[in-house]
Write a structure and sequence with these properties.
CATH architecture of the largest domain: 3-Layer(aba) Sandwich
Structural class: alpha/beta
Number of helices: 16
Largest sheet: 6 strands, parallel
CATH topology of the largest domain: Rossmann fold
Helix content: 40-55%
Low-confidence stretches: 11-19
CATH superfamily of the largest domain: Glycogen Phosphorylase B
Shape: globular
Distance between the termini: 8 Å
Order of helices and strands: EHEHHEHEEHEEHEHHHHEHEHEHEHHH
Number of strands: 12
Amino acid sequence: MRIVHFNVSGAEAGHSFYYDHHTYHIIDELTKEGHEVIRVDPALELGPGRSVDEYSEVALRQMKELHRDKGIHLFFASAVDYTLSGEAIDEIRRMGIPTVNMNWDDLSHPYRVSEVTRHFDLVWTTVRENAHVIKSYGAKKLMVMPFAANPHFFKPLDVEEQRVVGFVGSCYGARARNLCTLAQSEVPVEVYGQSPNDVYAKVETNNPIARAMASRRDGWTRLKRSLSFKSGRQCVTAALKRSLMEPMSSFPEKNPHAGSITYSKGPSFEDMVRRLNEFALSLGSIELASTYVFKDPLLFIRIREFEAPMCGAVHLVNRMPELEEYFEEDKEMLFFDSPEEMVDKARFYLDPRQDVARQAIRVQARRRAEADHGWINRFRALGDELGLAF
């Protein structure tokens, strides 16, 4: 099958991608499964921060050329309102090409696809909770499926295990709270990414309102649009609560270098796989924004929850009923309900007496991820809806 994958890298001025998820995840796996995947990324020609009309013009020109050449069987996009216009999508559909859009942030930012949604033949959201919001935007057909991981790239490696809890990524929000809690409880922690001090720079540590004020135009626009849906209002309320708590509370992340924690430069995409293999335990962070200040925070299953087990990592993450559908507790993934349980489980599984049990989880995590959670599994489901054979 000949597939066009559309996305705009760094479409917002000043934004750069830390990792190119699209290439290492979707494009690489589909190619290895025997499909021809052609990337259409107008930012490679125009650069970041250009208008939706400019990006759409380039995308349409390339699509017409590709379709005239050998034909295109599927237009698969990760598009938002400021990267592709509805008129461009309609024009692609008139060529007889099925169109699919994959949404990446529908729990916190569903409004980013409020215009493009109704123009696609099928929309894929990874968020069950806001499926009704996407439907309200006029989705012709909607599928709810989680992320996945490429088993050809995210795979077990023969490396020496480090007896630490590890995390790859910038350390802020709930992840900063959890990592610092572990370190200050004498659990060894290694972070490959920025420390909270580096993330927040001149803004007081993890004060969401102060950060919003520092980015007035974008911050106030997001605030206004967030008030239009439930999870957005919860995020706003949590940000207010967290900001009010900041000056009068002693949060672990206020001392980000205390305890047994080290910070190193974030690795390349390739090195991330090695790090996930090296960690005795990989920490997951699925509490959305500042909602971890609530008794029942909003939980958002991220792509790491599939990358880690695909690597054969022992992943320790917040308990979530949906995630428990994908991985069996204590056999394929470890879950916790509180910071206290997180610390207890980390200590237990770092104990040398649990080495055999931990290695068994590694094997079973990879087996489950490879069987059920590759991107080809998701695309076969899409194909069933569209009458395409993957």
